[in-house]
Amino acid sequence: MRIGIIGATGWLGSALGAGLLSRGIVQPGDLALLNRSGPRPDYHGHADVVWARDVADLVAQSDVIVVSVRPEDWPELALRAEGRLILSLMAGVNARELARCGGRIVRVMPNAAAEIGASYSPFWSAEGVTDTDRDTVRHLLSAIGTTDELSSEAEIDLMTALPGSGAAYPALMAVAMAGFMRAQGVADAIAWRAAEAAVVGGARLLERRITEAPALVAAYRDYRGTTAAGLEAAEAAGFSRAVVAALEAATEKARRMAEGPA
Ligand SMILES: NC(=O)C1=CN([C@@H]2O[C@H](COP(=O)(O)OP(=O)(O)OC[C@H]3O[C@@H](n4cnc5c(N)ncnc54)[C@H](OP(=O)(O)O)[C@@H]3O)[C@@H](O)[C@H]2O)C=CC1
Ligand SMILES: O=C(O)[C@@H]1CCC=N1
């Protein structure tokens, strides 16, 4: 099967291309690529990938087309892709708009952890998508991590806020934590390592047992030690409210983008 990626050198398109090639899901000669800035002599160690001349050329050389341009760049693509399976990675471009290209539409919401094969990339299939298409989607997404099929397109906007945000909130937390340490006079490198211990070490402890998070919070509270004091102060300062506000704002932005200009 020939795969085309529009936006193949971008943050996500490049991660997907790398994953597809390194896992042998697609052979270099069956991978058609397009970007704005032009072909690269080497694409993740492969010189023999196919660089399309333009959108029409990419469509002609692909059975499945991944659209990984920024949402604002979608209209200028003027994609015509009758009979093709389309995987849109774009936030805030709805299936009705995408269907104008004439293909069978699947919307996917990956995240930046695609770079390390650890993206959770839920997808939603519009009308006309077949079970064979779904198998194809799952196979392709296995190149960057795991997936689930969603039952409604509205859930894509929620998934755009989370998990689409990737490392954004952990990074924000790390910045605040390291900032506190530095403000207390701790050396820069040690301040960052302390933040890393909490953000990365803590995340590793929760890996594959995230549903135990409430019990873990309760265990720290019941311990009645220093962390319990910290958790109480965090909640009093609005920690959970801040997280919810962030997800609400991101979801709302995705919805407004999908509705188009007022
Ligand atoms: N980044 C993320 O964490 C996430 C992003 N998304 C979605 O994924 C999509 C891609 O995002 P991201 O990878 O971050 O974006 P980038 O800006 O990193 O990459 C965009 C890519 O699109 C290419 N491009 C732009 N315009 C055209 C055009 N007219 N024809 C061909 N190629 C074009 C660019 O080419 P060139 O490099 O030559 O300029 C580049 O390769 C977005 O729609 C975003 O909403 C979804 C979830 C998470
Ligand atoms: O911040 C963004 O717009 C991209 C799209 C979804 C998640 N990240």
TrEMBL record:
It catalyses: L-proline + NADP(+) = (S)-1-pyrroline-5-carboxylate + NADPH + 2 H(+); L-proline + NAD(+) = (S)-1-pyrroline-5-carboxylate + NADH + 2 H(+). Residues 2-92 form the Pyrroline-5-carboxylate reductase catalytic N-terminal domain. One of its GO terms (biological process) is L-proline biosynthetic process. SUPFAM superfamilies: 6-phosphogluconate dehydrogenase C-terminal domain-like (SSF48179), NAD(P)-binding Rossmann-fold domains (SSF51735). Gene3D superfamilies: NAD(P)-binding Rossmann-like Domain, ProC C-terminal domain-like. It is an enzyme of class 1 (oxidoreductase). InterPro entries: 6-PGluconate_DH-like_C_sf (IPR008927), NAD(P)-bd_dom_sf (IPR036291), P5C_Rdtase_cat_N (IPR028939), P5CR_dimer (IPR029036), Pyrroline-COOH_reductase (IPR000304). It is found in: Cytoplasm. Residues 153-257 form the Pyrroline-5-carboxylate reductase dimerisation domain. Pathway: Amino-acid biosynthesis; L-proline biosynthesis; L-proline from L-glutamate 5-semialdehyde: step 1/1. This is Pyrroline-5-carboxylate reductase. It comes from Paracoccus pantotrophus (Thiosphaera pantotropha). The lineage of its organism: Bacteria, Pseudomonadati, Pseudomonadota, Alphaproteobacteria, Rhodobacterales.
